[in-house]
Amino acid sequence: MNDDQTYRTLQERQQKEWEATCGRCGACCGVIEGDPCEHLAGTEKGKYFCRIYENRFGLHKTMNGKPFLCVPIRDILHKSWPGDECCGYKRKLKVL
User: Fold this and answer.
1) Could you tell me the residue ranges of all domains in the chain?
2) pTM, whole model, 2 decimals?
């Protein structure tokens, strides 16, 4: 395996680990506040997922039409939001 392949393999593994950290609670997407992103969907098991995940960053609206800017979770880990105590990323990085 060459250096490029090794690097890509490492990046893919790290991305899977990072994504697996999310508990799919929906708190960072507005579920706890009661006005979630219009693209957020729920599962039968009470978990949430983004219907446009690959294109989620940028300007969007909540279910009630309030505009907001969706940003990478790393950009808001140092902030507080309703329900952030259930955030797997914050617990893993201990930034609660």
Assistant:
1) 24-93
2) 0.80
